Amino acid sequence: MSAFSGKLPVIRSTWTALVWVLVLSLTAFAAPAKRPIPGAYLGTVAIDPGHGGHDTGAKGAEGYHEKTVTLILARLISDRLQPDYRVILTRNADYRLDIPDRTAVANQEGADLFISIHAGGSYLKEATGLSVFYFKELLENPEAAEAEPAENEGRNQPQPWDTVQIRHQTASIELAGHFYSFFQNNGIITVNPIEGMPLLVLLGADMPAVLIEIGNLTHPLEGKSLKDTSFLSELADQIKNAIDTYIKKK
Ligand SMILES: [Zn+2]
Q: Which of 1, 33, 166, 242 sits in a 20 to 30 Å window from 191, CA-based?
């Protein structure tokens, strides 16, 4: 036995401890993250549950409000999109939100898509079924439509912040068409042809934007479906899958 033999176990255990620290550190770095790092998201999606607070929207049977249906569905869609997408809910509780605030948060967070959810049937006369709308100006002179700039032509032109959607019109029509085809092919509800409307809630969105009217809460049959959690869950699956295929196609 040498004079150092008594110290060897101590040295060995110190080295062993250091090796373990190193191994554990490397393991920690190599461990799969529970949530993707921000750069790993497939995209950022803004979901806007219509109405809120004293703005109840349409009223269905037994005091069931549009503001409630839209929030339930928005949360279901959000749950399905995460963790592959960064999801922004313009509201996540029952409070009133001004129209410009709905798109402001989406613009601020650089959302790739803006999807406003409604259930009032208020944009079409006697509407039943699902409708997808994109923003379209009310033109006093229809011939002026021919002079409208194409999607990218107006890019370098100054565009007032509150009418910024106009430059995304072509992309929004494409997005609306994508939803329409998706609902037609996989639908659980009648789908109306897409339509352009002067919808203020979309006007300030600086990205492709649509408003989906998921049915008419005041309609006796549709109102019943819109209270059904399994119907809303299935609809959330459809909307999530439509978003997914649109973003992956891009
Ligand atoms: Zn509404």
A: 166
Answer whether the bond into residue 208 is a cis peptide, omega within 30°.
no
Structurally, how many domains does the chain consist of? 2
What is the pTM for the complete model shown? 0.77
Ligand 1 mean position, distance from CA 118 (Å): 4
Instruction: Dump pLDDT digits (tens) for 82-136.
Output: 989 999 999 999 999 999 999 999 999 999 999 999 998 655 556 578 999 999 9
Q: What is the distance in A from the centroid of ligand 1 to the CA of 67?
A: 8
Residue tagged 């060995």 (tokens): 12
Task: Tell me how far the alpha carbon of residue 131 lies from the centroid of ligand 1, in angstroms.
Answer: 12
User: Do 181 and 236 have their domain in common?
Assistant: yes
CA distance 131 to 35: 34
Rounded to the nearest angstrom, the distance between the alpha carbon of 114 and the centre of ligand 1 is 16
Question: What digits encode the pLDDT tens for the residues 33-74?
Answer: 445 565 689 999 999 999 999 999 999 888 899 999 999 999
Cβ partners under 8 Å of residue 138, min gap 6: 198
What's the gap in Å between 80 CA and the centre of ligand 1? 23
